[in-house]
Structures
1.
Amino acid sequence: MPKSIAIIGGGAAGFFSAINIAKKNPNYNVTIYEASSKLLSKVLISGGGRCNVTNTISEPKVLVNNYPRGYDFLKPVFDQFTTLDTQKWFTKHGVNLKTEPDGRVFPVTDSSETIYNCLYQNCKELGVNIKLKYRLVDLDFKQGKWHLKFKVKHEASDIVILATGINTGILNVLEKLSIPIIQPVPSLFTFNSKNHRQLNLSGISVSNALVSIKEITSRIENGPLLITHWGYSGPSILKLSSWLAFDIEKLNYNFNLSINWNSYDLKSLEKHLFLNVINSPKQKVRYWTEHGLPKRLWHQLFDSTGLKEYVNWSEIGKKGIHKLLSILTRYEVRIQGKSTHKEEFVSAGGIDLSAVDFKSFSIKNHSNLYAVGELLNIDAVTGGFNFQAAWSGAYMISEHLSNKI
Ligand SMILES: Cc1cc2nc3c(=O)[nH]c(=O)nc-3n(C[C@H](O)[C@H](O)[C@H](O)COP(=O)(O)OP(=O)(O)OC[C@H]3O[C@@H](n4cnc5c(N)ncnc54)[C@H](O)[C@@H]3O)c2cc1C
């Protein structure tokens, strides 16, 4: 009798599992059960419709630095299937890829439909069954088989792979099976600051800011920062929101953001400003240009110190210099709430990784039950890393199942 495999969820993790399992085990009867009437819907909207499938960072030790949750768990997983393997896999399956200067990898077509077509066609060619509008509501293991209760009907299967992403319904199913869960919170968001003092600067960005949260001293992120009409955004903010997702949630999204506008080293900057007093005593401070910031931003920062517009370096005094140092290296703004970044978000939380075997992605203490993708407590910063976790996990399951036979 061929073994039956039920894959719950027709997203990236579900499809990649199905294809790799079906290819390695042609005798298996593989079925994808999808709750909605659409397949791969997040793949289609991902990367602004272009699908950022992976990244060029491939060394597992370096790659894991992009995963606030999953860091240790993923190291040996990426040893088996890393970003290079993803690129090879898609190329082998007819998708030509290209790399952007920042290391993100996309299909050359710049269309996520290319990834959709690749995954869908491969499933079809391998004879994977696809059932739409099958929402799993309960799961029970009896007499060596998993009994799957869908809203529409009941089915049974030898092996179950959960690839549903996170939602309340599936968390209830997991709780009934006593699978430990880290309650999910949003990750990858931008910071809201209503009526902030820099509203007139919205659209201005700096390339090398350092950002941190005053109430949480454990993390500083650097990178581009964008001033928006609703608050602060850009890669540095997204990284901070991702690494501190749980701490920020505890603060109810109300906290003080601290900005060092150009990753200034405080001591060197202080020295530089005091040298200006000696070397350029008659120069007006407001017209200083060596700060490396957009002119409008510098003017706004200078004006907010309360220093007189025409003060020159010889008149500024120690107090004035300290005001400048503070505004350039520790600019503080009150954050009240969050917004979604280009509708792109992931959930931090999900199945506690202590309940998962990293070699097989099987759930400990449950026979023939596996989980993969965003349902696990694994998530990453932007850059193609979230899909990579789904591809690598799916590969591990497929390898484990083919070795098991
Ligand atoms: C707008 C947006 C853009 C993104 N862009 C990128 C990007 O460019 N690069 C990147 O790496 N990551 C990106 N991400 C993150 C990435 O999409 C996710 O990490 C990835 O889709 C997770 O895959 P998954 O298969 O685990 O879950 P999902 O893609 O969420 O798929 C789960 C599937 O399971 C189904 N399902 C849920 N519950 C049940 C149930 N009870 N029974 C049956 N089926 C069920 C769902 O309907 C869904 O189809 C983006 C996310 C968003 C929201």
Note: Residues 189-343 form one domain.
2.
Amino acid sequence: MPLKNLEYDFKWCPGCGDFGVIKALEFAMKSRIQEKEIPLVNNVVVAGIGCSGNLVHLLDGDQPYGFHGIHGRTLPIALGIKMGRPDLNVVVVAGDGDFLSIGMEHIAPQAARNLDICAIIMDNAVYGLTKGQSSPTTLFGATTSSTPFGKLEEKLNPLEMYMSYGVSFIAAGFSSKPRDLAKLITSGMDHPGFAIVHIQSPCTTYNDTYEELKGSVKKGIPGQLWDLPDTHDPSDRDAAFTAIRSSGWPVGIIYQDTNRPTFHQQVDKMRSSVDSNTISQLIDKYII
Ligand SMILES: Cc1ncc(C[n+]2csc(CCOP(=O)(O)OP(=O)(O)O)c2C)c(N)n1
Ligand code: SF4
């Protein structure tokens, strides 16, 4: 039976970008379930800690499984779920603080394994839940509650880092376009391997970047968002690096490599080629 979480309640500030992301995830999950005729309970959302972690539950209706773990550890939890049940659609939702700061050490190993999950990252360039401290994507020199005299570290370019780590699907999105974002999330969920959809999702309370992202004709602000052209070929690594290193924030599928085996395919292959041991045989091997 599908699960209902009607008693789950949480608060986001008015205008928080995460509202758009949750809508996009709902669109993507529901249409995918209908198209592929997968039961809703065969979808699992693993959430990090932060305002973004509230995406562990959809806004209304029947719910997928939700796992609200500990700060920064979405990927190890997702690895455990996927290895135990490779048939499930495992989706990670996390903020830039959770994923790129305390959780950073887990990204490269899953990229190397090509773990077959989709990670949706809500980047507001601050720690929203704990009142706006700086995160790896906060601008150099920015004044925040943890950098009262300006941030001393350079801003991380997460897309470039994912490319260097070998993440096999990288998309970039914006929270205010949930229909477009849903398409990127669907592509990420359909991708056979490690997919990251990295989203600009502004924090209206501690770092309101809507104007910088969208631009303002009245104020002469050009806006940072730009759509990848139809001619962009996601299988072209050089083109992906060029897009990422261009100024502003590219929106679309930046890179995709469908030629690598997934981690659970490799594990299955290895299992079928080695003799299995009983527990007592395994214990005997350790007795000197
Ligand atoms: C081990 C541990 N350290 C620190 C915290 C405090 N903490 C909770 S959420 C958070 C950061 C959240 O930032 P982000 O992932 O960017 O999410 P947002 O709230 O902006 O969506 C921190 C540091 C914690 N819960 N656990
Ligand atoms: S503090 Fe920021 S990230 Fe958290 S709910 Fe409010 S606007 Fe959203």
Note: The chain has a mean pLDDT of 94.
